[in-house]
């Protein structure tokens, strides 16, 4: 190290020493130690995890290697199919599991179908780095990296200002609406009244991209840019802090219509698209599991690269887009097909979870869509291969065959239905059977496969983003089929982790004890239903702590009953209640027979369910 004023050490002779490391082209985690000689005593600082930045501090690509999954990404939304230091592809235990992944979107714009996405293996790359309106210099359209273990108010926290200018989230500790990460009391620690970046994992990588590639440069040349902006946040956890998540990487997509073409993009479907390759890529099979909103790729036996116990790759939909559906998610009291808070009656509530730092947001009158289809297509196949136009791509997102036909499990040559009536199989969830027990619809044709886990529909209204969260999970058991069991168990824990707003790992989502403090809001279906004249309603209120701020977690809770026209019939609860599990007996002897709705409201959470009184 030097004190000559020439090596980033400020002024010569000021006893501030530094050095410059040449040739750094990528952001990487690295371990370093600093040694300094002081009066014949050797002082050595322990190795510290840090981030090295390139000359411009921001880069086009980043390599995740915080846990067992190694995954390169770039600022165009491409995952895995990114070359960094002559290495590309997702790797698990040092071997390939993922060639490429990204996403697909399709909807209607002024009654015209469009489809676009980031699917490099299928020659579709419609997104460019940056915002729709290019509000900053292109040098800032890069990947922004945050490390949870870095010292507070470090360089990455200040660089996050540019991410915020591009739309990134932050914790507004001082409540002024402006991101300004300053150590207000000078104690060297972050406090709850100070601003902080959106750190959701142990390592967080954020970028923004838009569908601005010209039609002439697209695979689907009939499709023009729709003014769609996507904020992509990839985050993961270290086994040192979350050993249960050592095989998991999360991806959050915030998708927004900026209104440059139309204020409404209608009937929009989203797909978590991937081209997995488990070692030897020609022996891969596809499956799906609707109980965990997942599609997966596996081997039925040994693999040339992985040996006797190849892993499986699973894509799990944790949070689908929020959708407002008259008659399903809300009672449309004024019959205008638009949910209006205070006028219409919510039946359901959607949620956007952003981690413990930023908390959660509830959307009364909407619901989070689940996986609505899971489908595969195959490399270079003439009738079930890469989509050739926007119509074929939309068919895939709808869970149909390439030509728009409904896939018939009874006749589908790439699969077979075992031990159940094939006519009862839901064709939209390809290969939803259990390969371990060989029961249900099973993929029997190993080959190079593409996997699409789809959800929708939703509406992209101008300046109202939707948020979708998925998880990549890789599990490895004692053999190929045991890897399926192992991975599904991991997926259940990941779902539980999501439901606690990325707080902690429960022992399993089905094992919540009623005597413990709940981890999420729950309004249960009344029992019995139909009823006459009494029924029991149970609900749960979780403890909600944000940014370690001490608070009284008692919240004003109301439980009301409405008739079918949305008129209030009675109030069952109206008081402050602490976190816990509650039940109340409702006596409807004074009401006439018919359909009623009961609505729980506590804090910002609102949920409504239907019940039937029969006298």
Please describe the topology of this protein.
Elements: E1 28-38, E2 41-52, E3 61-64, E4 69-74, E5 90-92, E6 95-109, E7 112-119, E8 124-125, E9 128-129, E10 144-147, H1 155-165, E11 170-171, E12 196-197, E13 203-210, E14 228-236, E15 248-257, E16 264-276, E17 285-289, E18 294-298, E19 312-319, E20 322-323, E21 330-331, E22 345-346, E23 349-353, H2 355-358, E24 360-364, E25 367-368, E26 371-378, H3 390-397, E27 415-418, E28 440-443, E29 449-461, E30 466-475, H4 480-499, E31 522-523, E32 534-541, E33 555-563, E34 568-577, E35 580-587, E36 594-602, E37 605-613
What does this structure look like?
The structure is a single chain. The protein has 615 residues and is mainly β. Helix content is 7%, strand content 39%. It has three domains: 52 residues, no CATH class; 342 residues, no CATH class; 98 residues, Immunoglobulin-like (Sandwich). It has four helices and 37 strands.
Average pLDDT confidence is 87
Count of the domains: 3
How would you classify the helix and strand content by structural class? mainly beta
Helix content: under 10%
Query: Low-confidence stretches at least 5 residues in length (pLDDT < 50)?
Result: 22-56, 506-515, 545-552
Number of strands: 37
Distance between the termini: 87 Å
Task: Tell me what portion of residues adopts beta-strand conformation.
Answer: 35-45%
What's the overall geometry? globular
The helix count comes to 4
């Amino acid at each position: 190290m030097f004190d000559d004023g020439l090596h980033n050490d400020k002024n010569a002779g000021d006893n501030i020493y530094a050095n410059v490391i040449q040739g750094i082209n990528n952001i990487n985690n690295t371990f370093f130690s600093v040694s300094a000689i002081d009066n014949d005593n050797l002082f050595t600082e322990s190795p510290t995890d840090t981030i090295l930045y390139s000359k411009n501090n921001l880069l086009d690509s980043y390599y995740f290697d915080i846990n067992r999954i190694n995954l390169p990404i770039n600022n165009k939304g491409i995952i895995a199919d990114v070359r960094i230091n002559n290495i590309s592809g997702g790797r698990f235990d040092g071997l390939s599991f993922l060639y490429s992944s990204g996403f697909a979107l399709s909807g209607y714009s002024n009654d015209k179908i469009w489809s676009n996405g980031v699917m490099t293996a299928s020659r579709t790359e419609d997104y460019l780095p940056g915002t729709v309106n290019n509000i900053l210099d292109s040098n800032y359209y890069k990947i922004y990296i945050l490390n949870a273990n870095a010292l507070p108010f470090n360089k990455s926290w200040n660089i996050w200002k540019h991410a915020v200018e591009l739309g990134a989230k932050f914790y507004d500790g001082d409540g002024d609406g402006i991101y300004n990460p300053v150590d207000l009391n000078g104690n060297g620690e972050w406090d709850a009244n100070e601003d902080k970046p959106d750190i959701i994992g142990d390592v967080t990588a954020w970028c923004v991209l838009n569908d601005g590639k010209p039609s002439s440069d697209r695979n689907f040349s009939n499709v023009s840019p729709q003014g769609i902006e996507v904020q992509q946040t990839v985050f993961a956890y270290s086994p040192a802090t979350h050993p249960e998540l050592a095989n998991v990487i999360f991806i959050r997509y915030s998708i927004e219509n900026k209104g440059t073409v139309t204020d409404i993009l209608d009937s929009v479907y989203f797909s978590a698209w991937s081209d997995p390759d488990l070692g030897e890529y020609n022996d891969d099979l596809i499956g799906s599991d609707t109980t965990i909103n997942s599609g997966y790729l596996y081997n039925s036996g040994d693999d040339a690269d992985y040996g006797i116990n190849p892993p499986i790759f699973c894509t799990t939909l944790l949070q689908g887009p929020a959708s407002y559906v008259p008659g399903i998610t809300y009672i449309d009291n004024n019959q205008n097909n638009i949910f209006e808070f205070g006028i219409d009656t919510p039946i359901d509530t959607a949620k956007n979870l952003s981690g413990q730092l930023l908390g959660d947001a509830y959307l009364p009158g909407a619901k989070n869509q689940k996986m609505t289809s899971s489908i595969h297509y195959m490399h270079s196949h003439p009738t079930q291969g890469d989509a050739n136009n926007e119509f074929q791509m939309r068919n895939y997102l709808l869970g149909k065959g390439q030509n728009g036909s409904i896939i018939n499990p009874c006749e589908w040559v790439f699969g077979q239905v075992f031990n159940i009536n094939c006519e009862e199989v839901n064709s939209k969830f390809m290969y939803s059977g259990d390969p371990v027990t060989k029961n249900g619809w099973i993929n029997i044709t190993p080959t190079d496969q593409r996997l699409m886990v789809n959800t929708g529909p939703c509406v992209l209204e101008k300046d109202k983003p939707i948020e979708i969260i998925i998880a990549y999970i890789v599990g490895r058991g004692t053999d190929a089929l045991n890897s399926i069991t192992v991975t599904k168990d991991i997926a259940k824990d990941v779902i539980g982790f999501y439901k606690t707003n990325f707080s902690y790992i429960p022992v399993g989502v089905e094992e919540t004890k009623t005597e413990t403090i709940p981890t999420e809001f729950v309004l249960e279906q009344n029992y019995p239903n139909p009823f006459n004249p009494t029924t029991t309603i149970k609900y749960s209120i979780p403890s909600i702590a944000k940014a370690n701020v001490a608070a009284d977690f008692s919240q004003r809770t109301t439980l009301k009953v409405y008739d079918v026209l949305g008129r209030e019939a009675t109030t069952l609860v109206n008081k402050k209640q602490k976190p816990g599990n509650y039940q109340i007996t409702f006596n409807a002897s004074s009401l006439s027979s018919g359909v009623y709705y009961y609505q729980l409201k506590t804090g910002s959470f609102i949920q409504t369910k239907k019940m039937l009184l029969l006298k």
